[in-house]
Design a protein that fits this description.
Elements lengths: L5 H12 L4 E4 L1 H8 L6 E5 L3 H7 L4 E4 L4 E6 L2 E7 L1 E3 L11 E3 L3 H6 L9 E3 L3 E3 L4 H6 L2 E2 L5 H7 L2 H13 L2 E2 L1 H10 L8 H12 L4 H11 L2 H5 L1 H4 L4 H13 L7 H9 L4 H11 L3 H18 L4 H11 L1 H18 L4 H15 L13 H6 L6 H16 L6 H12 L1
Parallel strand pairs: 2-5, 10-11
Antiparallel strand pairs: 1-2, 1-8, 3-4, 4-5, 6-7, 8-9
Helix pairs in contact: 6-8, 7-9, 7-10, 10-13, 14-16, 14-18, 15-16, 16-18, 17-18
The structure holds adenosine-5'-triphosphate and magnesium ion.
């Protein structure tokens, strides 16, 4: 039995009572069978848009071309669309045109994997022409029809399949896996945005390591890293990636941390180019670039002065993030934590003692310096930086009179 929430069952019944068919379909049915609460509900029906609009006057239009509407009952939202078959595929992307159909089986056939092509209605029962339930039972991802043709139609399906394997701990059926390898090159037609989304979801999944392994095995990795980077990958990077694939499931599922672990497998320039190319949000890009650029430097720090200098350069937020990345590295690769713990202790002690890290922490400011005759502008900045370097070394000198004395000396 596949249980649907009463709100969804009621939506379906409303349509059926008006003389049409309606089913819950796709990921929500798959997840219900697996006992995972679905994130979103999709319904499909042979009722026309006008009929659905009359039955659900509050419905909002989500996608005009496909006739998708969002209906709400209580707390539950569902997207409802008419049965359709996809039109001609162009350039290995989803079709521009669609045609509607009267048959639920035809709507199911255009879907990607057998587990995503099951339809359920409390009144009509289950429609499962491709034996998706048996594949779910066997934890198997299997393309519908000839997987080669289906990946040719839309290469994004290759990444979706790998992502589902990583989220659900499913295996990819042999024929489907061979087709993925054969058609991976068609990913060059898929937008960077979709690649980034699927890649991020895969690496942060519960079985992200399995996903990474599949990226390597299928040859998809080049579309994540870019040609420039992949051509420079040596044996060392491949070994690191292989190790990460075995271990990454132990890391926290936070995307910024898992992505950092991934990019740290490569040489700096290669990793930076790969990060830039995927077009992450600015915030994420800055974090990842810093992880790649600074993790080694931070690892080498053993005393307070250098730690304060680095934090004054990058800010507290980046420093805290880099420390989290180091923690994940230690956890995942079972590295000796001594240096990391020592550094955390240094930082705690800096904070407890109220030692100055930033220019704003100094006991003097620009106005004090102007008063003793230092010219506004560059000279002030130089003087403050000089004082900060002194105070990083000797925190006890962070007193107004002492700092002004230093300033007097460098004034001339
Ligand atoms: P999730 O929501 O966890 O990403 P999902 O399977 O629900 O998984 P959606 O993108 O919400 O994925 O799509 C809903 C359904 O639409 C899928 O289950 C599948 O039947 C169909 N579908 C989505 N994308 C494709 C595609 N690229 N090719 C064929 N069918 C697709
Ligand atoms: Mg979904």
């Amino acid at each position: 039995m596949i249980r649907l929430p009463k709100e969804i069952a009621h939506m379906i019944k409303t349509i059926e009572d008006a003389g049409y068919e309606a089913y819950a379909v796709g990921g929500c049915v798959r997840d219900s069978i697996l006992g995972i609460p679905p994130e979103d509900w999709d319904l499909t029906s042979n009722a026309s848009r006008e009929t659905l609009e009359a039955l659900f006057p509050d419905a909002a239009i989500v996608n005009k071309k496909l006739g998708v509407m969002r209906i709400t009952e209580g707390e539950v939202k569902a997207d409802i669309a008419a049965y359709r078959i996809d039109g001609e595929y162009e350039d290995y992307r989803r079709p521009e045109t669609v045609a509607f159909t009267e048959k639920i089986d035809e709507d199911l056939r255009r879907r990607d994997f057998t587990m995503n092509a099951i339809a359920v209605s409390p009144g009509r029962g289950v429609v499962d022409p491709f034996l998706g339930r048996a594949d779910i039972e066997g934890k198997l991802i299997r393309g519908i029809g000839d997987p080669r043709l289906r990946f040719e139609e839309d290469a994004l399906r290759i990444l979706r399949g790998i992502r589902f394997a990583a989220q659900l701990d499913f295996e990819i059926d042999g024929e489907t896996l061979r087709a993925m390898k054969e058609k991976a090159k068609l990913l060059k037609y898929i937008s960077m945005e979709r690649i980034r989304e699927e890649f991020t979801k895969t690496i942060t999944a519960s079985y992200g390591g399995k996903g990474l392994g599949l990226f390597l095995e299928t040859g998809v990795l080049v579309y994540i890293l870019g040609e420039d980077c992949i051509n420079h990958i040596g044996v060392a990077a491949r070994e690191k990636l292989g190790l990460l694939a075995e271990k990454i499931d132990q890391a926290e599922k936070e995307p910024n941390l898992r992505l950092a672990l991934f990019y740290l497998c490569f040489e700096k320039d290669c990793a930076l180019a790969a990060i830039d190319r995927l077009g992450y949000s600015n915030e994420r890009k800055i974090l990842l670039r810093n992880a790649v650029g600074l993790t080694d430097e931070l690892d080498g720090i053993r005393e307070k002065k250098s730690l304060k200098r680095l934090i004054s350069r990058v800010g507290l937020e980046i420093y805290r993030y880099l420390t989290e990345v180091s923690k994940q590295q230690c956890r995942v690769y079972r590295l000796d934590e001594t240096a990391l713990l020592d550094r955390i202790q240094l930082f705690d002690s800096i904070q407890e003692n109220g030692e100055a890290i930033f220019i704003e922490d100094l006991a003097v400011d620009g106005n004090d310096l102007i008063q003793i005759g230092i010219k506004e502008g560059v000279a002030i900045g130089k003087a403050l930086n000089h004082m900060l370097a002194t105070v990083h070394q000797c925190p006890e000198k962070n007193k107004k009179d002492q700092l002004l004395k230093i300033a007097e000396r460098i004034k001339i």
